Every structure is written in C-alpha cells, then in structure tokens.
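#structure-requests
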Amino acid sequence: MPSERTFAIEVAFDRTEYSCDDCIACFVIEVRPPSVVGAGAPRLPADLVLVLDVSGSMNREGRYPLMKAALERMVGVIGDDDRLAVILFSSSSDTVLPLDATSAEVRGVVAAVESSHVKFGESTRLASALVRALEEFDSTKSDVNRVRRLYCLTDGEIHDLDQCAAMLWKARDVDFSFHIYGFGHQFNVDQLNQLIAPFPHAVVKAMVDTQDVEWTFQHLAASAKKIVARDVLLDVAIDSPVICGDYYLYRPTERYLGVARPGGTRIRLGPVESGRSYSQLFQTRLPEASPGTTTRVGRWVLSYDFGDGTGWHQTPMSDFSIRRSAAGGAETRIALSRDLLAGIRDDSTAAQIARCLAQIELYRAESRDPELIRALERRLARLRNPENTPVDVDLRDRDALYIRSTPKTQPPPDRNR
C-alpha cells in the first residue's frame, strides 16, 4: 500500500514512568489519517444535509441575514463531487434544495430559502425536518459509496423535543454523521444534548459569536474535501491484571464515553479526514511491580476501509508498555489532557476551574487560536468570581466531531475478544 495511505498511530502516557505500587496510569492513543497528496489523490465524495432553523427568533439582524451569507459562502467552496441538501424548519419544514438538485439549483439556494413558505413561524418544530433529512439519505438518492453528514443549526427551544429524540434513537444505526450547532446565546443546551444522546461521539457545539456561522459553513464544505477513509475502527484491549477505567474521546473534541471493557473496547471513528487528529484517553490502574521492570498495559489494532472497493485493511496488532521505578517519573503533556477531561464528569466549581486551567495551558502549548484561549480565560474569570463577570457560554473547540457510523461493508472481527 502506498505510504501516503498509511495511518500513523501513537500511544503516549501521562508520566515518563510509574511507581512500583499499584497506581493510576492514563494514556492517549492518537490516530492520524494519511495525507492527501496532489490533485489526483483519492478522496470520498460526501452528501451534506443542512437542517436550518428559520423560526421567528431567527428574523433579526445577525441571525437570518448572516445564515444566508454563510450558505452562499458554503456553496462557493463545496467540492465538485460533493452534494448539498438544505432543509428549513420553523412551525413546519421545507426541503428547498434536495441532494439530487442541479448545479444551477445549488447556486440559487439562497433565493430558494428566501421564497420558502416556512420562514419565521411562531414555533420551532424540528421533527418533520429530520424526517426529510433521513429521506435524503435514502438509498434511492444517496449512493452507498458517499459519506453522509447531517448538520443541524438552531438558536432557541425545540418545541417537539420528545418526537425528535424518539426519531433519532431509531435512526442511531443509519449510516450518517451528526452534528448540532447552537446559534447565539439562547439555544437550549440540555435539549440539544438529549438529541445527541443516541450517538456516543456526537457533541453540541456553541457558536456564541454569531459571526462564527460563516466560518463554520465554509469549514464544513472544506473539511468534506479532506475525507480519506469511509470508516475506521480502533480496537483496544487492556491486559490483565491491569484494571480498566474510564475512557474519553479527546480529539477532535472532548467527551466521556464510559468504562472500557476488560475484553476489549471498539471505538468507531467513522469517516476521517487528512490533517486531523483522532485521539482517545484511557484511565487504568497498574498492578504492583519491581523497580526497573516494564508493565505491558495493552494492545491495539486499527481497521480501515478507504471506500475504494478494496475492502477492509488492518494494521498488525501492537503492544504498548510502560517502565516502572521506585519513585515514578515526571508528568508529560498528557497530564494536562487528563486534567482537562476530568472536569467532564464533575460539575463542581473546583473541577471546572481545574479543567479550564488545564485547557488554557494545553492550548497555549499547542499554539491554538488566541481568541479561543481568551474566551477560556473569560470563562475562568467567571468560574472564580461568578457575581462580577457576565454570563458566558461554555465554548468548545471549533473542530467538528464525528459519531459512530454503521459500516456499509462487513468490518473485520474484533481480534481482542
């Protein structure tokens, strides 16, 4: 297989070595997809479906006009092989652009939005729009060899939440990636978290600065051009007598995934993009050991399908170990990741402050977006002194996050079981 289509996988621990007593050890497994090389490099076409809130609350400066401008920008950068559908919702829903639209219809999508009969209704009812989105993914419209992504944008309360949640639960095994964006300051985070509950790797992302919507729409179209594999599975098995603990999605965005299984944990990364890191953090308890020895913690294997008809490929199974010493070693950068993720499961103010401090330090070390760092510093100030700082929304990394995607071809067996 050409080197440009090879995945890079790295395991890193939160200490250079661990003490000989039984102790907690955290490690990150980072998966970096192959790079896209040259104009003729292989890539997968994508079907992108936008479900956009056009209820009455969107009818204001900085909302609806900005959404139209963002849609225009997205149309300008979408890949030649990619397709776009746009569905509007308020009191009812309207498919203003289907996936099988002509190129002229795609260029005229903003005009179609303007003429829609559902704009600025009195309620925000999402369910019928989700039905329309799933119909776009029907096999008669969406080729099984295309990557399917569904993006939802809303700025307020969903009035048919139970119906939406039930529908999405039934659709959890349909082959698509799901992303929800909260627009502005007034969307209901708790409601949107209920909608993503069936999808282990999905998150709600806030666009607090409404100008972010233009950047986001452009980014969605641009990122679809970087898809290099249709599906990726990471199988991780922890050795006995090492004890499994919690595990988290760490990159592209942070989310708690549950407790790792002793017999092996399978993580589906779904479609992956070049230039992006996909990382998971695991917590374990190491057994007692003698100084100078090495403890094998576990093993991993990566399976991937490029979607080019060659089927599934697998890396050789690889072990990972850590040295033990009387005093233990120094902490590494992974310790910041560990502290950052610890706050996800603990809502106490102290835990959130520790998480925010770790996030700021880590983002500085990684030379991340200065605006994102400043936003985190403002949130830290609010956590430390909530009475004297303005209310802010918990900002998250702008990078997209992908959910589990049911494979279109039979994946390889889990060799850890």
